[in-house]
């Protein structure tokens, strides 16, 4: 069973890299490209939308939401092009890092904090 989990994790890692490659391919439809880029950027980002230190919910995005988003993005791709990008990802040595994905997550957190302060400030200032 442990071997199957490791193989599944390798397949997920390969598919994320393949989605990263597919997002830059001009043969992919724009909507699939945009979704693939968002999923790959989030998966490769060193920052999580839901921090892991939050009990149970912290791992929800990695265990449930991210694999579902990856599967949806893979299904949006033309099968022959996805196979081509999977082969390229399997042959690649290094894992890409998404600085844009990290910047997006930091921006979402800052906007959320700003909105919370904007909502909360008038009630405190009374």
Automatic annotation (TrEMBL):
Organism taxonomic ancestry: Bacteria, Pseudomonadati, Pseudomonadota, Alphaproteobacteria, Rhodospirillales
Top-level lineage group: Bacteria
Cell location: Endomembrane system
UniProt keyword list: Membrane, Transmembrane, Transmembrane helix
Protein name as it appears in the record: Membrane protein
Membrane-related topology note: Multi-pass membrane protein
Pfam families in UniProt: DUF1232
GO cellular component, one term: endomembrane system
Xref: InterPro entries: DUF1232
Ranges for domain DUF1232: 32-68
Transmembrane segments: 30-47, 53-74, 102-121
